[in-house]
Amino acid sequence: MTLRLYDTATREVRDFVPLEEGKAGVYVCGLTVQSEPHVGHVRSAVNFDVLRRWLAHQGYAVTFIRNVTDIDDKILTKSEEQGRPWFNLAYDMHRELDKALASINVLPPTYEPGATGHVPEMVELITTLIGRGHAYPAEDGSGDVYFDVRSWPAYGELTNQGVDDMAPAEDADPRGKRDPRDFALWKGWKKESEPETAAWPSPWGPGRPGWHIECSAMAGKYLGKAFDIHGGGVDLRFPHHENEQAQSRAAGYPFASYWMHNAWITTAGEKMSKSLGNSLLIPEVLKRVRGIELRFYIVAAHYRSHVEFSFEALDEAAAGFRRIENFLDRAAAIGIGRDEVPTTPSRVGGPADVPLPDAFVAAMDDDLGTPAAVAVVYDTVREGNKLLAGGPTAELTTAVRQVFGMLEVLGLDPTDPAWPDAGGGADIRLTDAVDVLVQGLLEERAEARAAKDWARADRIRDQIKAAGIEVEDTPSGPVWTLGEK
RNA sequence: GGUGGGUUGGCCGAGAGGCGAGGCAACGGACUGCAAAUCCGUGUACACGGGUUCAAAUCCCGUACCCACCUCCA
Predict the structure, then answer these.
(1) Which tops the pLDDT comparison, A247 or A421?
(2) CA of A359 to C1' of B17 (A)
(3) Pick the residue with more confidence: A422 or A60?
(4) ipTM value of the model?
């Protein structure tokens, strides 16, 4: 069984064949750190996090690079509006992004390069392009450098477009361009309107990088001239990825073997950036559901499917995920918990200690079929729930191990300490304290029940419930859990 | 205008020629003092119109509606 991935460039599902056996190099376009991350931003990160975990689980040594764009027009515009330096805005938003990603258990990449730290690499690449006749400094003295689209016959190959069908670029004064479709590799510093801190020295005078060049330069630096997979949101297909590929290949680099693009999360039928609304920012969403539930909501849909976001659907997903957690909790209550189920030491994938169900593996190998994979998790949970009635058995242990193994691949293991709300030492002490108090009440209730004094038994249960704690009677005795938030 | 994608049951969301993915909700049953949880069961869903085929949600043709990208949006 081999991994198959949908390649945007060829518009078909293809076998994944790495350039180097046993290794996978992945580059994902991260965010432009210009505002707080919302649900849509985070989807891309989760989707590619699942890709990474699956590759690792299948035994690949994964080098995973996800960049941040920390200088661009919007950052400059917004920072000016907010009356603070652009680098402060970018840094603040970068930290917000880190926090948001941590809250949904997205692993930190192998490395996270930023554009501003890689100007020399970009200058070098631009110089190469000029030398090869694929780029030229603007003739209007603006200090801009453009990629010469007409000089690269393959231009448009990624998105299946002809140059003549495209609308001309508007991000620079067209007077300096040979063709209106040429795009900026380097942007000359505009003294009158841009801060001095937003300019770096170059052979063409002070300026800053064009958008696309950073990814070409950084992918080349950290993954090599050829690498396996390049990912990002669908909107980046054109122009960003088309331009990246054109630049890199025109410079003589083979670049990415596979292109993967995640679809949108929309609200009211439109992309989130259009519908705005603070309620979709990650901290707001996390007031309603836990991070793990938000992640489950994202993972339960295929990465190439549009998802129409709604809080109702989010609540449903959260309810569905608790069913999985309930199974794990009940198994733990009879002695089959996470500690008894050793899997990989790093929790970053790698082969599990128990073979995952064939159907799960097949689903994941089929272009990361997470919806089908989640269905297998539910099937296993249902079987496990049946087994649970028989007490601790080898079959039950296997089911628990498989569920943990599958959840880990999806980044959804509730016992993973990476979850910020998984509880540190203080939480555990608090839980122990509450346990003592609740156990006392449960003993009283047990006495009442033994005496068939149902009124008193229910009164005690209601009293506990008033504190936000649910009591369930199980074959092995009453179990208390914190109620839903 | 060019390019890419979508329309599935009360809801969410898979699938891509034949056997009803899965979840949420609902209803019935089992279990329970009652609940809860769990298990079992219950649905003639594939935008519309044609066609191909023994067989179409799935392939072909056409129509409608929706969305995205076309130079700094995940």
Answers:
(1) A247
(2) 22
(3) A60
(4) 0.94
Question: SS3 helix, strand, coil % of chain A, rounded to 5?
Answer: 50, 15, 35
Report the protein residue whose CA lies nearest the C1' of nucleotide B2: A165
A351: left (phi over 0), alpha (psi -120 to 50) or beta: beta
| Cα–Cα distances in angstroms (integers) from residue A220 to residues A29, A121, A171, A249, in the given order | 14, 9, 25, 11
The domains of chain A are located at 4-267, 288-421, 425-482
Distance between CA atoms of residues A89 and A73, nearest Å: 13
Judge contact between A38 and A280, C-beta under 8 A.
Answer: yes
Asked if A381 and A327 count as a contact pair (C-beta separation under 8 A), the reply is yes
Distance CA A346, CA A334 (A): 26
Binding positions of A for Zn(2+): 29, 215, 240, 244
Q: What is the DSSP letter of A151?
A: G
Q: Which nucleotides of B are covered by protein (CB under 7 A)?
A: 1-6, 11-15, 21-25, 32-40, 66-74
A168-206 confidence digits (pLDDT tens) = 555 555 668 888 889 999 999 998 889 999 999 999 999
Q: Which CATH class is domain A4-267?
A: alpha beta
A373 Cβ contacts chain B strand, under 7 Å: no
Inter-residue contact A156 to A242 (CB < 8 Å): yes
Asked if the Cβ of residue A409 lies within 7 A of any atom of strand B, the reply is no
Residues facing residue A474 across a β-bridge:
A477
Please report the pLDDT score of residue A426 as a whole number: 59
Predicted local distance difference test score (pLDDT) of residue A406: 94
In sequence order, the β-bridge partners of residue A478 are A473
Backbone angles phi, psi at A65, to 5 degrees: -110, 125
The residues near A268 (Cβ < 8 Å, ≥ 6 apart) are A275
Binding residues of A for ATP: 274
CB contact at 8 A, A341 and A397? yes
End-to-end C-alpha distance for chain A, whole angstroms: 42
